[in-house]
Amino acid sequence: MKAIALFAVSAAALAVLAGCGSAKPTNKDDSAFVYLMDRKPNWVENKVDTLPPLPQNADLLEFNVSENTPLSFFIDKNSLSVGTDGVIRYTVVVKSPAGARNVNYEGIRCDNYNWRLYASINEDQTDWDRTVENDFRRIENGELNAYHAALYQDYFCANKLPTGSAKEILQNIKMKRTAVSNYH
Length: 184
What we know:
Blueprint: H1 2-21, E1 60-63, E2 72-76, E3 81-82, E4 87-95, E5 101-109, E6 114-121, E7 128-129, E8 137-138, H2 147-156, E9 157-158, E10 161-162, H3 166-174
Antiparallel strand pairs: 1-2, 2-4, 3-4, 4-5, 5-6, 6-7, 6-8, 9-10
């Protein structure tokens, strides 16, 4: 019985080895190989036809950008969404110590470290102005008020993907749980 089992195992091993030797070498350039996860899909952005309501002070969540800036930065909790296109859209409010404020509706793409402006508050501070809309551009890290980088790195994205649902992201902002603090 042992002899039959040994013969069967030996025959199987020979069959595997015989299969290994049958591959013929080619001159194909393997440097053009692309891993499945590295393939660039044909990305299409979701249409942004409607804008959220203008933010109310009671709905603003503050987040830290830098200890070196006198400005304060806030996300409108009612505007944050994670789109099926992978874009995290939000209203950001930037306030100066003198009381001036900028309000923008923007989006950040986690897969390529880019951001986009969809609208800003108009001069009368009564409605959105879409004439300022721009295409996606690279996030700048070195600026004193680089709030895009802070949002991307601290709350919105990890491994080129959104860190979670809008509810989870808002909870992290509210609790001041940054990506770095989650490692400690």
